[in-house]
Amino acid sequence: MTFPFHLLAPPDPAALPLPHPAHPADGVRLLRGAVYSVPEGSRPLTVDLWLPQDTAGPAPVVVFVHGGAWRTGLRDDLGPRFRHWDPGPFARLARAGFAVACPDYRLSGEAPHPAQSDDLAACLDWLRARAADLGVDTGRTVLWGESAGGHLAALTALTRPAGGVSGCVTWYAPTDLPALAEDHPEGAYDAHDPATFEALMLGGAPAERTGTARDASPVTHAGPQAPPFLILHGTDDALVPARQSVRLAEALRAAGHHPDLRLLGGGNHLWVGLTDADAEDCFTRTVDFARRCTGGDRS
C-alpha cells in the first residue's frame, strides 16, 4: 500500500484562521504571527498586522521590511531610535488609518537571493488573498524598509510593478551592490570578501557573483513602471554610504521619475547622530508620503 504523500503538504496559508486580535493601543488591533507562506525546506513565515479599529472602508496598506543586514532582525523593529515610543510607530500608523504588515523573510543563513524578495512577493500575494478578511485595500500599498529591509522593499517594488505597489520608502538602504567598494572609503570594503553581509546574501562575494549582484541591486531594475519613491539617508553613514541612495535616485530619474531624495546632514546608520526631533521627522515624512501615495489621509 502506498502512502498518499500529498497529505504531508501544509495547508494553504490563505485558508488558515487568522490569529486572535490583541489591542496594544486605543484604536488598534494587532494580529501577531499570521502564517503567510510555508517555503519548502524552511520554517513557516509569519507577518504581524497592525490594523485600525474603525475605518470607513478598506484601509491602505504599509508593508514594513525590517533590517539586520539580511542576517538577523525582528519583523516589528524599526530600530533603536523608535523602541521607546509609546504608542509605538506601527500603532501610530494604524491610528492614522493605515494597515501595517510586518513580515518575516528568510535570512541569508537560510537561503540566498532571491529568496528574500520572493518572500515579500508571497506576503503581498497573501495580503491580496486575505484583503476582505483583514479589511484592507491592497491596491493602495506602500513598501517601506530600513537598511537591508529598504533594499528588499525597493527591489520588490521595482521587480514586481504589477503588484499594486503605490509607493516605496527606503531608509539608508544599499541599492547598487557592485558599486559598494567604490562608494566606501578606499580599502573599507572588499568586494572579494566572501564573509561580508552582501556576500552571505548573494551566496558568494559580489566580485565573484557579478550577475547575481546586479540582479539583487534595485538600481538595475529602475524602469518606467517604478512607483514613487521617498529615499532617506544620512550623510555620515559608516555602514551604507549615502552615495548608494543617490545612485537609486539617479537611476529613477534616468527612467523618467522624480524620486524624493533627502540626505540628512550628520546622520549615521540607524539615524545615529540625529536629534530626536530629526529622527521623528523621518517617520513623519514617511507617513506623509504614504498618505500622498494612497489617499490614506486620516487625522
Automatic annotation (TrEMBL):
Keyword hit for Lyase: no
Alphabetical list of InterPro entries matching this protein: AB_hydrolase_fold, BD-FAE-like_dom, GDXG_lipolytic_enzyme
Annotated BD-FAE-like domain residues: 48-252
The keyword ATP-binding is annotated on this UniProt entry: no
Keywords (A to Z) from UniProt: Hydrolase
GO MF: hydrolase activity
Protein name, per record: Alpha/beta hydrolase
Organism: Streptomyces pimonensis
Lineage: Bacteria, Bacillati, Actinomycetota, Actinomycetes, Kitasatosporales
